[in-house]
Design brief:
About 40% of the residues lie in helices and about 15% in strands. The protein has about 350 residues and is an alpha/beta fold. It has one domain (about 10-20, about 45-325): TIM Barrel, CATH 3.20.20. A seven-stranded parallel β-sheet has the order 4-5-6-7-8-9-10. Strands 1-2-3 form a three-stranded antiparallel β-sheet, with no helix packed on it. α6 (about 205-215) packs parallel to α7. The longest helix has 19 residues, at about 10-25. The termini are far apart.
C-alpha cells in the first residue's frame, strides 16, 4: 500500500532534523567573534579572506564560515548609477567584502560599479517586491521563480547569499508560509543557485522561532540602532549564539533619524553609532551610503576605539532619545527593536 505524501510541515521538519546533527556540532564552537586584520591570529589564514585588507576587521558569519568585513555596504541607497560607483569602489578599496542589494535596480547598479571586481565581494540578493512581503509569492515555487528571474535579470549564475525579505511582522505568516521560505532557500542552495541562505524581517519573535526551529537557516538581517540593546531575558542574541547564525544589522542610523543636517556632527554621530553596534561582537552593521565621503566615514569607524567610555554611553542615550522623537511615521516600527 502506498504511503501518503508528507505534508509541508513534515517535509520541512524532517529536513530540519536531518540538519540538526550538523548544527549541534557547530553550535557554540565559534560565535560571531571578530578579528581585526592587523591583529589576526596565526590560526586564521588571511589568504582565504575575500578582499583582505590589513586595515579592515573581519568577522566569522556564523555557520557559513565566511569571514566578512566588520562593516558591509547596505541597500536602499539613493544614488544614481554614476554616484554609486565611487561609493562601491571606495568600500572595496578599504577591504569591505559584503554588499547587500535590495531589488533589481540596486543589484544592477552595484554589479556595474564592481565590474571586474565582482569576485572580491559577497553579494546578497533580495527582490522584496517579489518575495514573501507580497501575498502572491508565499509558496516555495513562486519564491524560486523570483530567484530565477533575479539571476537572469542580473546575468548571474548564482548569488552568494539569497536572503528572502518577509512581511512585517513576520509572525503574521502561517507555519506553512514560514516553512515555504525555508524550502525555497534549501532548494536554491542544493541547486547551486545560492551559496548561502538567510531571511530579513522586522519581527523579533518570528526570528527567534525561525532560528530555533530550522537549524539550516544561516543568516538573518534585522534592525539594530543606537536604541537597541539585549533583552534582559530570552534575548535573540542567545538564539544567534546557540544556533550559530550570522547577523547583519540594518538601519544603524535609524533611517536617517539620527542626523540633524550638520555634516561634521552627523559624520561623528554615524561613527559613534557604528561603534555601538560593533561593540556587540555579534551584529555586522550594513549602513546605506550615498556618497564617497559617507563611505570614508564608516570605514574610519572600524579603526576607532571600540568600547565606549562613560561620556559616550551617556551621549548614546541622549542620541537615542532624540532619534526616537524624530522617527517619521513610516518608521515608527523601529520602536519595536529597543530590545532584542
Amino acid at each position: 500500500m502506498n504511503k501518503q505524501q508528507p505534508s509541508r510541515r513534515e517535509f520541512v521538519r524532517d529536513t530540519a532534523l536531518a540538519a540538526a546533527a550538523v548544527t549541534a556540532v557547530m553550535s557554540g564552537i565559534m560565535g560571531a567573534a571578530g578579528v581585526r586584520a592587523a591583529e589576526a591570529k596565526p590560526a586564521i589564514d588571511t589568504s582565504k579572506i575575500r578582499n583582505y585588507n590589513p586595515n579592515m576587521e573581519y568577522r566569522r558569519l556564523g555557520k557559513t564560515g565566511l569571514m566578512v568585513s566588520a562593516i558591509g555596504l547596505g541597500g536602499h541607497n539613493r544614488t544614481s548609477e554614476a554616484d554609486r560607483a565611487p561609493v562601491v569602489n571606495r568600500c572595496v578599496d578599504a577591504g569591505v567584502n559584503y554588499i547587500d542589494s535590495t531589488g533589481a535596480g540596486e543589484l544592477l547598479k552595484d554589479l556595474k560599479a564592481l565590474g571586474r571586481r565582482r569576485d572580491q565581494v559577497y553579494i546578497a540578493l533580495s527582490e522584496t517586491g517579489r518575495e514573501s512581503r507580497n501575498p502572491e509569492f508565499r509558496t516555495a515555487a513562486k519564491l524560486l521563480e523570483t530567484l530565477d528571474w533575479a539571476l537572469q535579470n542580473s546575468k548571474q549564475e548564482y548569488t552568494d547569499l539569497w536572503r528572502i525579505t518577509v512581511y512585517e511582522p513576520g509572525g503574521r505568516h502561517t507555519f506553512d508560509e514560514s516553512a515555504a521560505v525555508i524550502e525555497a532557500l534549501e532548494t536554491a542552495k542544493k541547486a547551486g543557485k545560492a551559496r548561502f541562505t538567510g531571511i530579513s524581517s522586522h519581527d523579533r519573535r518570528w526570528f527567534k522561532f525561525m532560528i530555533e526551529y530550522f537549524p539550516q537557516l544561516e543568516v538573518i538581517l534585522f534592525p539594530f540602532t543606537t536604541m537597541t540593546k539585549a533583552a534582559p531575558k530570552d534575548s535573540l542574541f542567545e538564539s544567534l549564539k546557540k544556533c550559530d547564525v550570522g547577523a547583519f544589522g540594518i538601519k544603524p542610523f535609524a533611517a536617517g533619524s539620527l542626523f540633524t543636517g550638520q555634516t561634521d556632527e552627523d559624520m561623528r554621530k554615524a561613527r559613534l553609532a557604528l561603534r555601538y553596534v560593533l561593540a556587540t561582537n555579534t551584529v555586522i552593521p550594513i549602513p546605506g551610503l550615498n556618497s564617497a565621503a559617507e563611505a570614508d566615514n564608516v570605514i574610519k569607524a572600524v579603526s576607532e576605539r571600540r568600547e565606549l567610555d562613560i561620556k559616550e554611553k551617556a551621549e548614546i542615550h541622549d542620541i537615542s532619545r532624540e532619534t526616537l522623537a524624530n522617527l517619521p511615521a513610516h518608521y515608527q516600527w523601529l520602536r519595536n527593536w529597543e530590545y532584542i
